[in-house]
Design goal:
By secondary structure, this protein is α/β, with parallel strands linked by helices. 46% of the residues lie in helices and 17% in strands. The longest helix is centred in the N-terminal third of the chain and has 20 residues. The mean pLDDT is 86.
């Protein structure tokens, strides 16, 4: 049975990837990371300079899956009720009044939170319960969200953007992956120009139904994780803690706070997806290493020296992996 599940997962993943590549140029690894996040049941944050295709990636994923999708354009005047919904007074035909909850765009399968840092922290926090608990509470009543549920948020690099509100660490931690989009190279730029300035329109085919997507997400959870692989994930997270005996030398010097326990969850679940793509139903340490930077780069808080030296979280995670391999 596991062999058939592995093959089914690989075929579905490849079909979605090929459809997305019709619209997205030069970001093959980013596509794989976004799909890894989706099938692991997490939420994804895309960061880059403006105009590099963050919204296109999210919209394309919505188009190739037979799932309901909505988009919220975050702006400074956006209110929490604009996202969650609001309770209004309605009237029946015989004149009786009652309270009716009008659902907001958060009730969907795939939610594109575009430029999430453009709104105030009060509005940003409206997503917290939905992202973590997969439910929304309004007026003492809780409403469950559909399954699967996937939030893919975009944000511009803060040092290159004005008029933004910093995402609190607690909210950043709720994103499964944070992916940084590099600037396209010469060939990619030329291809983008050819595809977007002509009269041809790319037609995307539906690659996966909602029921099948939910089934494959369940398959990911069933992948086995040996104790050695679990310990490997824990060692990576502990390696980011400066106060820990297991903390790496780089972390002890440049990190103020290391990864939270959600980092272990992201490493293990991301490793399960990579194991399936590798044709295996058992997670190996190498599968966890493949998602370490994506899962942890937003979960490290640098100290003053780290910020002054311009050290990146990616560099620190890379040093942690090297020290673990050398041990």
């Amino acid at each position: 049975m596991p062999n058939s599940k592995v093959q089914e997962f690989q075929e579905a993943f490849a079909a979605i990837r090929e459809e997305m590549k019709k619209s997205i140029v030069g970001y093959e690894s980013i596509i794989d990371d976004v799909l890894t996040c989706f099938f692991a049941g997490g939420n994804c944050l895309l960061e880059s300079a403006p105009g590099l295709g963050k919204t296109l990636i999210a919209r394309t994923l919505s188009e190739v899956l037979e799932l309901d999708h909505k988009r919220i354009q975050f702006t400074p005047d956006l209110m929490p009720s604009d996202i969650i919904g609001t309770t209004i007074v309605s009237e029946t035909e015989d004149g009786k009044r009652y309270f009716d909850f009008q659902r907001g765009p958060i009730f969907t399968n795939i939610l594109l939170a575009d430029e999430i840092t453009r709104s105030t922290p009060k509005t940003q926090s409206a997503l917290l319960e939905a992202m973590q608990e997969r439910m929304v509470s309004v007026g003492g009543t809780s409403y469950k969200l559909d399954h699967p549920y996937f939030v893919i948020a975009t944000m511009s690099q803060e040092e290159e953007s004005e008029g933004t509100y910093h995402l609190p660490e607690a909210q950043l931690d709720r994103f499964f992956f944070k992916l940084n989009l590099p600037k396209p190279d010469l060939d990619a730029l030329q291809t983008i120009g050819q595809r977007t300035t002509g009269g041809h329109k790319t037609e995307l085919q539906k690659a996966l139904t909602g029921d099948k997507a939910a089934e494959l997400i369940t398959t990911v959870r069933e992948v086995e994780v040996p104790e050695a692989s679990e310990r490997h994930a824990v060692n990576i997270v502990m390696g980011t803690h400066p106060e820990s005996e297991e903390g790496s030398s780089t972390a002890k010097r440049f990190v103020r706070y290391g990864s939270s326990p959600r980092g272990v969850q992201a490493l293990v679940l991301g490793g399960k997806v990579r194991a399936l793509l590798d044709g295996k139903f058992v997670v190996e340490p190498q599968h966890i290493d493949q998602v370490a930077i994506q899962a942890l780069n937003h979960r490290l808080l640098l100290n003053f020296e780290g910020q002054a030296e311009g050290v990146s979280s990616q560099e620190i995670i890379g040093e942690v992996l090297q020290e673990i391999r050398a041990a």
